[in-house]
Design a protein that fits this description.
26% strand; Hepatocyte Growth Factor; alpha+beta; receptor; kinase; 5 domains; Agglutinin, subunit A; binds 2-acetamido-2-deoxy-beta-D-glucopyranose; 781 residues
Length: 781
């Protein structure tokens, strides 16, 4: 042992000698501050550095004209902040200073000279301020004793050698780019247990370790009241409550930090100095949806490759940029006149009213809720025990595949009725797990190799294969990774029944080596194939998709969950090496354009045309409003409307604009997609693209459908031609496709043309929503 220690010391000495010479050459900044010295926000070089340069301290920009005095890792790709003096009170970019006063106080002043933050160390005679190699900013006295150290007032990060004591709390940041104090805390609770706690404006609750289970289950002990915890430089975490764990890369070398992230997750990171990126080497075993408060009041966290939030029917996001503010009802709660909307596989944690428990029939559970004005809804479990939970607050909602609980949320009768109408329109609004979903961004520690590790964890935990920290991590971890991979696969099967990940060989076999090409779209060729189980499929080989496997998988699994009779169903995908392939149901009748523009005399009869107009509108409406607000099609044209056996339309290729790397609503699309003639004017003018661009393309398709003229073929612009034609003697009738031989419903023709002309308005604000189009077409007038 002694020999080993000596060896390490020699090694340390030697390596420090080497790094010191090389480091000091490029070191910029000050080593110490002495009384009356100050650092100015305006001078970029006013930075304190640690002896070997690992850490720097100075003014860090946290917003426009907002700075915090901070400590960060010098060598991470982006400055990784480990401590902030004034995270909740940033100072301006002019005339703010950190001053080491003559009286021994270290103060931060803003432009008006007001003291924003101070160490309160006057009369203790500190003689210098230094940033130690550990990342501790210290005030030292004559004999080198530490008068004050930043380690004693941590923000969201614990560094090796730093002790988390009784009085210390790690407090997460507010958001990915907002360093002010957030709602998550990590500290010793009153029972001497290190816990993660959501401490929000209205509610606080412990979420780790699982409060429903005895702490002994997790090997913790509440007996030691001295309450301290440290991370050593080998990557071993030790706590008086017996929470001990090791980094996966345990050993001397990498710089590490334990950070409570804004998403409520506690992660240990190691720095890869060759590229400056952080990799996660330990993670508290928490499923993202178990983090309390993530989706705010009324919000529901949806388990998936990435956790995401949604609002229940009748509710709307309170703040589109901040899920923690949850969802607000779109109605005035009215106890007298209420009904319930239903959400499958859903529950809300906690806040049960008294009248709760097993042995209730559904009817008595429902009536108990109706009878109590404090009841916001109830969860009923169809497990045979009649478990009925009445809720006084809807908080910490979660939705999980196969979870045997149905949540009934109390809403005024009108709202419940609208929800039922949606079902009647073939828009299964209550089935739409992705309603109002926005993916919660993970913090950007983009180490591709480990990105799958990130989302593995969620699955591993949710599926329940939780193994606590293992002392012999080495071989165990490698073995485990293999098992985790299988678990992820299983997770996906559960996530979207019938949605499958195919191997390349399977698809090669199914398509007889991609023999029969049945189409070619903007994303690549489509082949016909037959799966082992006899299903006929259309196999689309994507080109130019640069997404990594995990990202692609995540996107595609969302598209795979979309299930609507007017949308082509995706059955699976393949992401192997460079191959990115999608597997769809096969549409025997091919695309609509073949029928519409064929020269054959027997073209589509009117009733079929109207069905196609209506069905396409329903499909798009589902994409735009009911389900995924951010799914814009971006390439609506007859070629992308496929017809099934009954000549019912199904929209194909939706969601692909996302795969091609376009962003959602409110961003500028790259012009990867779109077909001339169908493009909305704002698209051509490179303005913001919204769902109204699809509405425009749909309008053009309608005009083609009634007139039988292709927007691509005709000499006059189609819209203009139709408008002229209407002005002539025949009026609307003159527009009708001559191949119909006058055999059509005049009222419907008029309606379609009117709707189409609304849809192709130049000003997108004047175009109707797709759901509005559906209701116009359905109206009996
Ligand atoms: C930093 O340099 C000192 C000598 O100045 C050396 O003793 C120490 O081991 C070095 N630390 C690191 C982390 O390189
Ligand atoms: C950070 O979040 C807080 C609380 O929501 C807010 O007041 C503040 O303006 C935000 N700061 C920035 C830079 O966005
Ligand atoms: C650094 O930050 C910028 C801006 O926030 C971001 O675009 C970039 O991806 C980050 N780089 C890394 C390596 O995290
Ligand atoms: C310096 O601080 C240390 C620890 O706080 C203390 O023990 C020591 O007496 C102080 N020395 C002087 C000269 O004040
Ligand atoms: C933490 O507590 C243990 C046991 O009470 C004690 O031995 C140890 O010295 C403490 N560590 C620190 C850094 O205070
Ligand atoms: C550090 O990054 C480099 C370059 O990306 C990579 O080759 C190396 O394997 C990484 N090291 C570790 C320990 O991850
Ligand atoms: C509900 O009914 C009670 C008595 O029947 C009445 O006093 C109250 O105003 C009603 N509340 C609402 C919101 O209609
Ligand atoms: C809801 O989704 C499930 C599974 O995707 C499906 O079986 C069911 O028919 C859907 N319900 C409605 C009302 O569409």
């Amino acid at each position: 042992m002694e020999v080993l220690l000596q060896f390490i010391f020699i090694l340390l000495f030697f390596s420090s000698f080497v790094t010191e010479t090389s480091a000091s050459a490029k070191l910029q900044g000050l080593q110490s501050l002495f009384p009356r010295d100050s650092l100015s926000v305006e001078n970029e070089d006013d930075i304190l550095v640690s002896p070997n340069g690992t850490f720097s301290a100075g003014f860090y920009k946290v917003g426009t004209n907002a700075y915090c005095f901070s400590i960060w890792f010098t060598n991470s790709a982006n400055r990784t902040v480990t401590w902030m003096a004034n995270r909740d009170k940033p100072v301006q970019g002019e005339q703010s200073n950190l001053i080491f006063q003559k009286n021994g106080n270290l103060v931060l002043t803003d432009a008006y000279g007001t003291i924003i933050w101070e160490t309160n160390t006057f009369n203790q005679d500190p003689v210098s301020v230094q940033l130690q190699e550990t990342g501790n900013l210290v005030l030292l006295n004559q004999t080198g004793g530490i008068i004050w150290g930043s380690f004693d007032s941590p923000t969201d990060t614990l560094l090796p050698h730093q002790t988390l004591r009784k009085a210390n709390i790690l407090v997460s940041a507010r958001g990915p780019n907002n360093y002010s104090s957030g709602y998550y805390n990590f500290h010793f609770n009153d029972n001497n247990i290190l816990s993660l706690i959501y401490n929000g404006p209205e509610i606080s609750s412990v979420y780790w370790p699982n409060p429903d289970v005895s702490v002994f289950t997790y090997g913790r002990t509440p007996y030691d009241s001295s309450r301290n915890a440290t991370l050593d430089e080998l990557g071993y975490f030790m706590s008086t409550d017996n929470l001990n764990f090791k980094a996966t890369d345990y050993g001397l070398g990498p710089k590490r930090r334990l950070t409570l992230n804004y998403d409520g997750m506690l992660r240990l990171y190691s720095l890869n100095e060759s590229n400056g990126l952080w990799k996660i080497t330990w993670l508290a075993n928490i499923n993202a949806c178990d983090v309390r408060g993530l989706c705010g009041q009324n919000g529901i966290c949806v388990y998936g490759p990435k956790a995401s939030c949604m609002c229940p029917p009748g509710f709307r996001r309170t703040d589109p940029s901040d899920w923690s503010k949850g969802c607000s009802p779109e109605f005035n709660p009215n106890c007298n006149n209420s009904e319930f909307v239903q959400l499958s596989h859903t529950d809300y944690y906690g806040y049960d009213l008294q009248n709760t428990g097993p042995g209730k029939s559904f009817g008595s559970c429902k009536n108990a809720c109706l009878a109590d004005c404090n009841c916001k809804g109830f969860a009923y479990q169809y497990t045979g025990q009649g478990n009925c939970y009445l809720k006084s607050i809807l908080f910490n909602g979660y939705q999980m595949p196969n979870y045997p609980s149905v949540m009934y949320i109390r809403v005024p009768s009108q709202i419940a009725t609208t929800a039922r109408d949606d079902v009647k329109l073939n828009i299964p609004a209550l089935n739409c797990s992705q309603r109002n979903v926005v993916i919660i961004q993970q913090p950007t520690e983009n180490n591709d190799k480990h990105s799958y590790f990130k989302y593995l964890i969620g699955f591993v935990v949710s599926i329940g294969i939780v193994e606590l920290i293992c002392i012999n991590f080495g071989w165990w971890f490698i073995k485990r990774i293999h098992r985790m991979r299988e678990v992820v696969d299983m997770g996906y099967v559960a996530l979207a029944v019938g949605f499958k990940r195919f191997t390349y060989d399977e698809l090669k076999k199914a398509t007889k080596n991609f023999k029969e090409e049945i189409g070619k779209g903007s994303f690549g060729a489509v082949y016909k194939g037959v799966l082992d189980d006899g299903r006929v499929v259309a196999v689309k080989r994507l080109e130019r998709i640069s997404q990594g496997e995990a990202e692609f998988w995540a996107e595609v699994s969302i598209i795979g969950r979309i299930n609507h009779m007017n949308l082509v169903r995706m059955w699976g995908f393949c992401a192997e090496d460079k191959h990115r392939i999608l597997v769809y149901e096969y549409m025997k009748n091919g695309s609509f354009d073949k029928f519409l523009f064929s020269n054959s005399s027997e073209s589509l009869v009117w009733t079929k045309r109207f069905d196609i107009a209506l069905g396409t509108a329903k499909g798009l409406s589902y994409l735009h409003e009911e389900c995924l607000e951010w799914i814009l099609h971006c390439d609506i044209k007859p070629q992308n409307i496929l017809l099934d056996d009954q000549l019912q339309p199904k929209v194909a290729d939706f969601g692909l604009s996302k795969l091609a790397g376009m962003k959602g609503i409110n961003s500028h699309f790259s012009k990867v997609r779109g077909t001339r003639g169908y493009l909305a004017p704002e698209w051509i003018m490179n303005q913001e693209i919204t769902s109204k661009a699809d509405v425009y393309s749909y309008g053009i398709v309608l005009l083609e459908l009634v007139s039988g003229r292709s927007v691509l073929g005709c000499q006059d612009p189609l819209v203009q031609w139709i408008e002229e034609k209407i002005k002539q003697d025949e009026g609307i009738e003159g527009v009708a496709d001559p191949r119909l031989n006058g055999d059509y419903n005049h009222k419907q023709l008029k309606k379609l043309i009117e709707v189409a002309l609304l849809c192709v308005r130049g000003d997108k604000k004047e175009r109707p929503d797709m759901s509005h189009v559906v209701s116009i077409l359905l109206r009996d007038d």
